[in-house]
Design brief:
It is built from four helices and three strands; from the N terminus they run βββαααα. By secondary structure, it is an alpha+beta fold. The chain has a three-stranded antiparallel beta sheet with strand order 1-2-3. α2 (41-53) crosses α3. The longest helix is centred in the middle third of the chain and has 13 residues, at 41-53.
């Protein structure tokens, strides 16, 4: 993968946009990713947190990682007592 020059969440398009050093622009549709990957409100919440607070980690997770494994690891349901 090429070097990432910039990464930000575009609120108007609901996409995380990456600009690479060769001039390529990659746009990740966050709504489509959530609809495909997130099975619970906890998983959606985790993805939302990444999108707004660390869009680069979100983009790397989607492009290079396995988001299903990540979501299973971090979004655990805890029963209320």
């Amino acid at each position: 993968m090429k070097k990432i020059l910039s990464c930000e969440f575009n609120l108007d398009t609901a996409c995380v946009e990456l600009r690479l050093d060769d001039g390529t622009l990659i746009s990740i549709d966050c709504t489509a990713v959530e609809n495909e990957m997130a099975n619970s409100m906890y998983q959606r919440s985790e993805l939302d947190w990444l999108i707004y607070n660390d869009p680069l980690a979100y983009a790397e997770l989607i492009l290079n990682g396995e988001p299903e494994l990540y979501l299973k690891a971090v979004a655990k349901k805890a029963p209320l007592d």
